[in-house]
C-alpha cells in the first residue's frame, strides 16, 4: 500500500524540491491541491487528515495553523519551518546526532526539520559538547556563506531579476542584530550555555553552504589539536552515510580553498578540520536546500517509513 503524502506549501522552494525527490518512487502517492485552494483552510484540512504524512513547507504561523487542522491522530507531520524546532513533543530531525535522535524520528509523529545554518553548526558543536571536548560555557562563534536560495522565493526573484542593485554582486553579511531565527535551536540542541555569535553571509550563487566554527585549542578539553578533533569527529560519524568527515588535510585537494557551492545538488554533508594547535577551524559543507532543508525532510520520512535513509536522495 502506498503512503499518502500531502505537501502543504508545495509551491515554495523547499516544497518543490521535496516534490522532485518523489519522482519515480512507487511507494508514495502525492495528494494534490488545486492552485486556487492552496490557502483554503478547509481544503488543506481535508487533505491533511486524509494523509499518512504531511510536509509543512510554510512560514511559521501558517505551519502552526496547519498543525491545528489535524483531527486524524494517525497523521504524521514533518515541519520544515522554524515553528516547532524547540517545542516539546517534536523530534529534532537530525538523526546522525545520536541513536536517541534517530529513534524519536522513527517512532514519533511530529518531526521538526533543522534550519540550514543550524544543521552545519549542530553537526559540529553537538558531538564536541556531548563528547566532553567543548566546554558548555565556551563562547562559541560561527560564520557561514550561503547561496541566495535559502532566503526564499522573494529573495530568489530579486537576485535573478534582469535589473537588480549592484550591491547584490558581492557577498552581504546580515543578521547584524544577532537575532537570527536559527540561534534558538543552535543553543538548545547543543546544550551550550550562551547563544553563539553568528555571522551569516548571503552570496551571489543559487545554493550551497559552508559554515565554520573557530576554536582555540587551549580552551578545549583533552583534544586541543586539529588532529585530535578530526579523529574524534571521524569516529563519531563513522557509521553514517549522509554525514562524513573528510580526510585530514584534504583541503589541499582544493588548493587550500573550500568552495561554499561545491556540494550544490547533494543531500549529504561533509566536515573539514583545519588550522593549527593554537586555532582550529571545523567546517561543514552541504547544500542549504539538501541536507539543510528538503533532503533532510526526505531522510526523516524514510526513517519514519522504515526505508533506507538515502532513498530518493542524491548521495
Helix content: 25-40%
The overall pLDDT average reads 95
How many distinct helices? 9
Could you give a short account of the major beta sheet? 7 strands, mixed
Distance between the termini: 27 Å
Overall spatial form: globular
Question: Would you give an account of this structure?
Answer:
The protein has 315 residues and is an alpha/beta fold. Helix content is 30%, strand content 20%. The strands form two sheets. It has a seven-stranded mixed β-sheet with strand order 8-9-7-10-13-12-11. The protein has a six-stranded parallel β-sheet with strand order 2-1-3-4-6-5, with helices on both faces. Strand 3, helix 3 and strand 4 form a beta-alpha-beta unit. Helix 1 crosses helix 9 and helix 4 packs across helix 9. The protein is globular, with a radius of gyration of 20 Å. The two termini are 27 Å apart.
Short description:
With 315 residues, the protein is α/β, with parallel strands linked by helices. Helix content is 30%, strand content 20%.
Layout: helices, strands, pairs:
Elements: E1 3-8, H1 13-21, E2 28-30, H2 41-50, E3 53-56, H3 60-68, E4 76-79, E5 91-92, H4 99-107, E6 110-112, H5 116-130, E7 141-147, H6 153-159, E8 172-173, H7 183-190, E9 197-203, E10 209-216, H8 226-236, E11 243-245, E12 269-275, E13 279-286, H9 290-305
Parallel strand pairs: 1-2, 1-3, 3-4, 4-6, 5-6, 7-9, 11-12
Antiparallel strand pairs: 7-10, 8-9, 10-13, 12-13
Helix pairs in contact: 1-9, 4-9, 5-7
